[in-house]
Amino acid sequence: MPKDSPIQFNTKISKLEHLVGMHYLEIPQKIVKKLGRKFAIRLLCTVNNSLTFQCGLVALGDGNGYISVIAKRMKQLGIKFGSKVSVELKKDDSKYGMPIPEELAELLAQDKEGVKRFKLLPPGKQRYIIYYVSMVKSTQLRIDRAILLIENLKQLPIGKESFREMLGLGKRWLVIGLYVISRLFIQNLQFVNFV
User: Fold this and answer.
1) Counting C-beta atoms within 10 Å of the first and last residue's C-beta, which end of the chain has fewer, N or C?
2) What's the CA gap between 133 and 127, in Å, rounded?
3) What share of the chain is helix, strand, coil (3-state, %, to 5)?
4) Which residues contact 154 (CB under 8 A, 6 or more apart)?
5) Which helix (H) or strand (E) covers residue 46, if one does?
6) The pTM is what?
7) How far does the chain reach from its first CA to its final CA, in angstroms?
8) For residue 99, which of 135, 65, 75, 69 has the smallest C-alpha distance?
9) CB 27 within 8 A of CB 14
10) What phi, psi does 112 have (nearest 5°)?
């Protein structure tokens, strides 16, 4: 895909059968070819010349791809399932494929170990952290989320980071839960034998 030349085409809004409520823009095989036949690519997608958003291209099958469209964007565009739309795609050259929240950027600027570990993550996990922090409106909640994720990230072995563990919901909660359930089960057996 030439760096500065956008690709324009028309398509329609479809639904993914295996994900209830998931709408998408179908990207025909000929457009995927123009994009270099790559599905691990970040793009800027403009729909109907009115709304531009950052996205990724996902394989749909038979050489076709898709870009998911959330309900909020569909409402903004005034489109629904089956609507025909015009699409313009350009390569997204931004560092993370989405804007980084100010609170997370400031934390990373102050935390040498945190930024080191963040940079070691694959791009998808970096975007997960950025998205999770940015999805709340409250500044304090964005700060809290940024601290939670980066502090938990620093505790995990390199290369073994999972979203659950970055959220603080790792294996230890599973072990605690199993312990509590086993204690309740044993207490219940003792109660039944007593009666």
Assistant:
1) C
2) 10
3) 45, 25, 30
4) 113, 114, 117
5) strand 42-47
6) 0.64
7) 75
8) 135
9) no
10) -60, -45
DSSP annotation string for 64-85: EEEEEE-HHHHHHHT--TT-EE
- pLDDT tens, residue by residue, 133-174: 988 899 999 999 999 999 999 999 998 888 888 888 866 555
Whose CA is closest to 153, among 190, 131, 126?
126
DSSP bridge pairs for 64? 61
> DSSP character for 130?
H
Contacts of 56 (CB under 8 A, 6+ apart): 39, 40, 41, 42, 43, 67, 97
Look up residue 44 and give its two tokens: 């800027």
Locate tokens 């479809």: which residue?
Answer: 14
Rounded Cα–Cα distance for residues 125 and 106 (Å): 19
